[in-house]
Design brief:
Helices cover 76% and strands 0% of the residues. It is built from 19 helices and no strands.
């Protein structure tokens, strides 16, 4: 098989592996591509996309900066840089990347991500117009519109979008959870607490999708100790997504010791998330656990060298507080 044909086959297989998994297969194909065609824009783009899919955001950051300089006219590279910036919650930067990518190559997928980004930056009219324009191309836009309408406080419209998606994909776990979570949010606080009490009496655990809303309701209605007990009981069983949601609920409820514990539990997944690390440090300061956070950063600094700077700043804060 000629080298060009080999590369073409590897590229097709890489696209399939990144889309359908498993990532181990994608990693193996990428290694072959780097042998056969190491310097091409396509191979480098696949490497960046692999880092994104594998949640290796530190590696993705380093590569994205390099590739943006090398291939400033590549719509695909710019799109991937936008996805990385979005994942890192650098939404203004993500918007700029997506806009330039779309200028170079008009794409409904890029429009979809622009719509998601507009939602995050509060440009809700633009978000709605953009997501509605691609809804027929990407049914996932129903979910993004649902989140947009939630952000706007239009829960009826949000529910309609989730239900429209579930009509197409009735067993989609994420959509089911979004639908259930929103229905819980629409209940009166007393009704929600009664629903959970009833489940408890039946010996049934509360669904993960609505548990953060339940905890928030307990804090908001003054049942602080009950909220704390409920979180403590689940502490060792939390999946990362639920755990991070609860960390923010506890943080906003000023339950800083609980939020610090939860933030620390999942910090390794958020080493490039400035907002997450800042909240961890603020909570740690409130409950006098900055030394513990410094030690945690020290253990993880090999994964993200930027933690060294945060450690220095925390040490200065600790000395100032002594």
């Amino acid at each position: 098989m000629s080298s060009k044909l080999t590369v073409a086959v590897l590229q097709r297989n890489m696209q399939k592996a990144l889309k359908q998994g498993p990532l181990k297969e994608a990693e193996e194909i990428l290694a072959r591509l780097k042998q056969e065609d190491p310097l091409s824009r396509e191979t480098r783009g696949f490497e960046l996309e692999y880092y994104l899919e594998a949640d290796r955001l530190v590696d993705a950051e380093a590569m994205a900066s390099q590739l943006h300089r090398m291939f400033p006219d590549s719509a695909r590279i710019l799109f991937l840089c936008g996805k990385l910036a979005y994942r890192l919650k650098h939404y203004a930067q993500a918007e700029a990347y997506f806009r330039e990518s779309h200028r170079l190559h008009i794409s409904p997928l890029t429009q979809l991500w622009l719509g998601k980004t507009f939602t995050q930056t509060g440009q809700w009219d633009q978000a709605e117009a953009t997501l509605l324009a691609v809804r027929n191309h990407y049914t996932a836009a129903h979910l993004d519109l649902g989140w947009l309408y939630e952000r706007k406080g239009d829960w009826k419209a949000a529910l309609a979008e989730y239900e429209a998606y579930l009509q197409l994909y009735p067993h989609d776990e994420f959509a089911l959870q979004q639908h259930m979570r929103l229905k819980a949010k629409m209940l009166e606080p007393r009704e929600l607490v009664e629903e959970f009490q009833h489940l408890s009496e039946l010996g049934e655990p509360a669904p993960d999708s609505v548990f953060p809303e339940y905890i928030r309701t307990l804090f908001d209605t003054g049942e602080t100790q009950r909220a704390r007990n409920e979180v403590q009981q689940r502490m060792d069983l939390l999946e990362p997504r639920l755990g991070m949601q609860l960390a923010w609920v506890c943080y906003r409820a000023h339950a800083y010791d609980l939020s610090c514990t939860l933030f620390l539990k999942f910090v390794e997944r958020n080493l490039s998330n400035f907002k997450y690390l800042s909240a961890l440090e603020a909570a740690g300061s409130k409950c006098h656990r900055l030394e513990e956070i410094v030690q945690c950063y020290r253990n993880l600094a090999g994964q993200n060298p930027k933690l060294h700077g945060r450690m220095k700043a925390l040490r200065r804060r600790i000395q100032a507080e002594q």
